[in-house]
Structures are given as C-alpha cells and as structure tokens.
Design goal:
This protein is α+β, with helices and mostly antiparallel strands and about 100 residues long. The chain is built from 5 helices and 3 strands; from the N terminus they run αβααββαα. The protein has a 3-stranded antiparallel sheet with strand order 1-3-2. A hairpin with an 8-residue loop joins β2 and β3. It is globular.
C-alpha cells in the first residue's frame, strides 16, 4: 500500500497506463487540484512507478509521464480496480464511470 495508498495515486496510475502529457492528465482529472496532482506525481516518480520526460528546456515545458517497467507490473491490478468501479457505477448511480 506504500506505493498506491492515498486518495489519488491509483487514479493517476490508471490514467497513466497510456503515456500522457501533464496537461492531458490534468484535463482528465478536473476534480483533483493541480497541487495534488503535482505532489502525487513526484511521489510516484520517487517510488519508481512512473517516469517523467522533459522534451524542451525553455518554457512552456513539455513533460510526459508514463509507467516504468516496475509501474507496469501494477497494470492488471489497476485494470481490475477500474473494472470493479465501472461495474459498481452501473448499480450505484452516485459513482461516476472511469473512461
């Protein structure tokens, strides 16, 4: 739980199953503050679950995030969590479906 504990880490990891730019991730998570996303990304990078690639040296920075090989070992678990959430959302209308 050290790696995926917390309110948003698993959600962020699910979205990073496919490589994304920071702004893409931000748009997919409008309910999460920019500061929280930033902090969670730093922790996930420190834990070795994601990698961060900067494509330019001058602002605005173009930054990609993707799962590392270690992070990819979580993919089956993350997909199972997302599937369970989507099935639960079919029953309980208070829950949103993850796309």
């Amino acid at each position: 739980m050290k790696y995926i504990g917390g309110k948003w880490k698993a959600v962020i990891l699910i979205h990073l199953i496919k490589k994304k730019r920071y702004n893409e991730l931000r748009k997919e998570l409008p309910m999460v503050t920019e500061r929280t996303i930033s902090l969670q990304l730093k922790e996930l990078e420190q834990d070795g679950l994601i990698s961060r690639t900067v494509h330019t040296s001058k602002p605005p920075l173009k930054v990609d995030y993707e799962l590392t090989e270690f992070g990819k070992t979580l993919t089956p678990i993350l997909e199972a969590i997302a599937e369970w959430g989507n099935e639960t959302a079919q029953i309980d209308k208070r829950i949103s479906i993850v796309k």
